[in-house]
Amino acid sequence: MSSSEPNSPNQEYDSLxxxxxEIYPREVxxxxxxxxVAMVALTLGLYYILPxxxxxxxxxxxxxxxxxxxxxxxxxxxxxxxxxxxxxxLIISALALFLFTTVGGRLWCGYACPQTVWTEVFLWIERxxxxxxxxxxxxxxxxxxxxxxxxKGGKHVIWILFSLWTGFTFVGYFTPIRELMHAVxxxxxxxxxxxxxxxxGFATYGNAGWLREQVCIYMCPYARFQxxxxxxxxxxxxxxxxxxxxRGTRKRGSDKPTDKGDCIDCSLCVQACPxxxxxxxxxxxxxxxxxxxxxxxxxxxKKMDYDPGLIRYTxxxxxxxxxxxxxxPRVYLYTTILIGLILAMSWSLYTRIPVSLDVNRDRNxxxxxANNGDLENVFKLKIMNQDSKPHKFVITMxxxxxxxxxxxxxxxxxxxxxTANTLVRVxxxxxxxxxxxxxxxxxxxxxxxxxxxxxxxxxxxxxxDWFR
Amino acid sequence: xxxxxxxxxxxSPFWAWYIFIIVAGSIIWLFYLLMTQNKEKRNTDIKPxxxxxxxxxxxxxxxxxxxxxxxxxxxxxxxVGYLILYPGLAVFDGVLGWSSVGAYNEEMEAADxxxxxxxxxxxxxxxxxxxxxxxxxxxxxxxxxTYCTQCHGSDAxxxxxxxxxxxGDWLYGGDVAQIKQTIATGRQAAMPGWGAVLGxxxxxxxxxxxxxxxxxxTAGDLDAGKEKFQQLCVACHGADAQGNIALGAPNLTxxxxxxxxxxxxxxxxxxxxxxxxxxxxGDFLGEGKVHLLTAYVYSLSVDN
Lengths: 468, 304
What we know:
The complex is a heterodimer of chains A (468) and B (304). Chain A is of the alpha+beta class and 468 residues long. Chain A has helices spanning 31-49, 83-104, 107-112, 114-130, 133-141, 146-171, 177-183, 191-211, 213-219, 221-225, 241-244, 268-272, 292-304, 316-319, 329-350, and strands at 13-15, 17-18, 62-65, 70-73, 76-78, 236-239, 311-314, 355-361, 368-369, 375-385, 391-398, 404-407, 412-414, 419-428, 437-446, 453-461. In chain A, strands 8, 9, 10, 12 and 14 form a 5-stranded antiparallel beta sheet that branches. The longest helix of chain A has 26 residues, at 146-171. Chain B is mainly alpha-helical. In chain B, the strands form 2 sheets. In chain B, strands 2-3 form a two-stranded antiparallel ribbon. In chain B, strands 5-6 form a two-stranded antiparallel ribbon. The interface between A and B is medium-sized, with 32 and 36 residues.
């Protein structure tokens, strides 16, 4: 990528920093462009519609309620204690990325990445207002007149409105979106809500409107580390050098020249590229595998009456004549682990019991003697009701026969989402205590639903010198 | 220029100037670097750096995008703006006048404003009334967890040397006023050690007598013990050994033992004395919190 400015002979120094080369991707039509439009519709459709869906009565189906520390995910309500599921989800996502990248290369970059998807929408708006690639280039070169001001200004206004809507939707995942909708016209949002609406609006506008391929080339860590998941059997987008070279222009409809390959050097693949590379130079890290060059080239091949696929999805092995090997040990391994993890997480979520107990020994004293000589241990209990309705709980204890459980409250009420704090004393006489430390289990059970239960181990401590 | 008092970590203005020179110098130096080091001598083509891996993987010397350089400038300009607004140069307090002490005070004031009204409200109410108010007791129990559990235990059940507050047995009296006084001004017990006066046998005999008062038997001459008791102990514990609330002298005829009811513990109390101390919380917590804590502690023994 020699993008440094042309050197003038009287200049003694070169800048170490290159001015950005403007890119005006040519609009393409074809099978892969249609796939991308479908993916844009799917991902952005989900993004903008999901927060408006309700689950049950007036409860937003997807709401990450940070102030109340609970996540509503359709029928599930997750609490900070369930963070393990987030880790599991991230691990599953990472493995899915490994699998897809190993088989299909940068599928994520080309079809699903927010940077690609939103840029696609921004490009569409740009084309609607400024016209095709040549028209855009012409407008950029033209002096500032009324036409240019209206077109450029209009484009940015629409971009900004769309970005603000994006920011608003994003905040709608964290603040009930219907309340937010009523707050916005009267400027009644909280300070953080306003901040994040504008922050995400600005990020959308800046990334999809201005930075575009710069994000993929200079900022995205994924673009750089995914090459470790590639091997010679990974799908890449490649120009078939054996078939295409030597390149050369020719008249349409004339016979295929004997001294030239199939590439007619029309440069449409370069014009279509959103990151400004020439795919014919081989596999490059800037390539986001969007397949725009395939669509552009296939179109030309069709017009020339040549076979399609001069630029195509292929593998390094296939293009060098060693054949296509999609199913290989690595793929089987990733698939097995991925399915296993998905099953394990689903099972765990399905059997999850929405109550949790935390037992803490009193920090003041290990044990104390009651007036009648019995030994007493004090435990602080935290009972978290993660169910969607209130429950009353009873506490039981086992592990030290002959001991007495003396709770502060016989029944503990905890509202939905509430953590109820209570204390229990465990009392035992000298002759039933067999060791300086006895393992006991404290258990809470909802009175109205005995399946709603959790237990935790604790230890009953006695003076060490009793057992010396 | 901030003033330097003796409580400050740095008592000499030298350090302020030291910081100023490093910070200001660094920023100027960075600007200088950015302006002078962004180009290199004529170099017609992008040539590889010479690093090579895996036979043919070359590292190119591709120029960075120019907006990176602009970001470097932007961060430096941000730093200058920040140092104008906030204290960071040590010799200059910043236009906004922000300080960590000021921020702390502001938050404390905001909290006082938010919660103070509630405490004033509670202060107007009688303790016996508050002891039935669930919200007040919840707040009280949180205060108790913060300030009292370290000695009295999470459940207020006490421990060796620290009284049980749930059992209705009070060293200094269980009236509302007495509890409040205990919390606000603290208590200092003064049981002297009698080991030197009584001698080993004397301690043993007095212990035997004291234990007999609550119906426990142990080796020792009860008559000799009783005689010494009448001489030395009645001044505080009373002739009937029922104790004295004014002095915090415990009742020796019941089953409650602050330091343990075994022979060893009582012998130690007699021989070495006990000087339990309840710290004063009045000035530290303020009237409102003491009032609420009184209600909470009072409610504990009323329930039981």
